[in-house]
Design a protein that fits this description.
six-stranded antiparallel beta sheet; mainly beta; 1 helix; globular
């Protein structure tokens, strides 16, 4: 299922769905302090799901295509 808004992505993660960003190598997760991150599985690298709160980039996603799928 394609996800197009920040709200849809966060709701999917919160409900336990596996959400990917652009490819199955990039999984969207919520960490233990409540941050939504994109985890690059191949190199164990993390980046924020979106820009910093309080800036013009707060709602800008760090990816172009988000979708749900089976956990790898």
């Amino acid at each position: 299922m394609e996800l197009t808004t920040l709200k849809e992505i966060k709701q999917a993660v919160d409900s336990g769905l596996c959400v990917y960003c652009d490819s199955i190598g990039y999984e969207v997760i919520k960490d233990r302090v409540g941050q939504y991150l994109i985890h690059y599985i191949g190199a164990d690298y993390y980046t924020g799901l979106h820009g910093m709160a309080g800036t013009e980039y707060a709602e800008k996603l760090n990816g172009t295509r988000f979708f749900t799928g089976e956990r790898k």
